[in-house]
Design goal:
alpha+beta; five-stranded antiparallel β-sheet; four-stranded antiparallel β-sheet; 12 strands
Length: about 325
């Protein structure tokens, strides 16, 4: 029974496929006569014999190994299956899609700045994309010693070097430590280049790197928000009015009707005072001796007689004002 059981054909395929796996290594004692190779969409199949690559197959389909695969293998072209013989080979299935994964800083990164000698503790998060591009490096560095490799394994590898890369590119590109989001594109581009060089050594390529957000400690974020509010409003008096209005609308300024009324009265007085100042300024402008409406000519425009203190010409009676 054992003799005949060895002759059962194999189905060489990616068993229990997972979408987050970069590769899967199929290995068995022998590939038997009549065995078939199944390649599904988004997969490449790499035949390895005695530790070296014999052939790479990229077209999806169901193939007879003896007639459709072996003739294309570099050192096994003349291999013939016998009654008791098979191929002791491995088949590595590679996921060819582009992967997208999330990243985030493990700890807050202290970015040096003149405002805070100890640095600003900053956290960041985002996404990155990658794919397998070099099968030889992948097999040499990873697949040769591991049965599988997942997206989580790549995330762990990236996290180990991401903090110093963020430090490098934030200090290089981030001109305003309190508005790093404005420089996120340049920072992301620099980090992508460095990460691509790091993953190149294991046969991967970084296809994209994005920073979704930077976050500051709560007290610093409050200062940033307050400063932005002042900059947007500009006028301190107007800012106080908006603050008071927001307080009444949100219910922060409340009481048994009295507190709210007092707040409204104070706001009304401030507005009234501002209006009075504006009216006084307009009145002063109109009553100014340099005003075009109240100026008196030194000579009569009708007869040329020199004018005096009166509003009419002493010679011809021409109205002067």
């Amino acid at each position: 029974m054992g003799l005949f059981s060895r002759q059962f054909a194999n189905v060489v395929e990616w068993q229990e496929f997972r979408d987050d796996m970069l590769f899967y290594k199929w290995s068995n004692n022998e590939i038997k006569k009549g065995s078939r190779l199944i390649i599904r969409p988004g997969q490449d199949a790499i035949f390895m014999y005695n530790g070296r690559i014999e052939g790479i197959f990229k077209d999806e389909g169901d193939y007879d190994i003896e007639s459709q695969i072996i003739p294309f293998l570099s050192t096994l072209k003349g291999f013939k299956f016998g009654f008791n013989s098979g191929i002791r080979a491995e088949v590595l299935f590679v996921n060819t899609k582009e992967f997208t994964a999330k990243w985030g800083t493990q700890n807050a990164i202290n970015i040096p700045t003149q405002a805070l000698p100890g640095g600003i503790p900053i956290r960041a998060n985002g996404t990155f994309g990658f794919k397998v591009t070099d099968y030889i490096k992948l097999i040499d560095k990873i697949a040769g010693v591991r049965q599988s490799y997942n997206v989580e394994d790549v995330q762990l590898r990236i996290r180990s070097i991401l903090d110093p890369l963020l430090m490098k590119w934030i200090t290089k590109e981030g001109k305003d430590m309190f508005n790093l989001q404005a420089n996120s594109f340049d920072i992301s581009r620099g980090i992508k280049t460095d990460l691509d060089m790091e993953l190149f050594n294991i046969g991967l390529s970084v296809t994209g790197f994005n920073i979704m957000s930077f976050s500051y400690p709560e007290e610093i974020q409050k200062m940033i928000n307050k400063n932005a509010s002042h900059s947007m409003i500009g006028d301190l008096n107007r800012y106080q009015q908006v603050e008071m209005t927001d307080g009444i609308a949100s219910g922060k300024v409340k009481g048994g009707g009295t507190a709210s009324d007092m707040a409204g009265m104070m706001m009304g007085m401030n507005i009234a005072n501002q209006m009075m100042k504006n009216m006084e300024q307009a009145s002063d402008k109109q009553s100014s001796p340099n005003s075009n409406n109240t100026s008196k000519p030194n000579f009569c425009p009708n007869c040329g007689q020199k004018t005096g203190d009166t509003n009419f010409c002493p010679n011809c009676g021409q109205k002067l004002v």
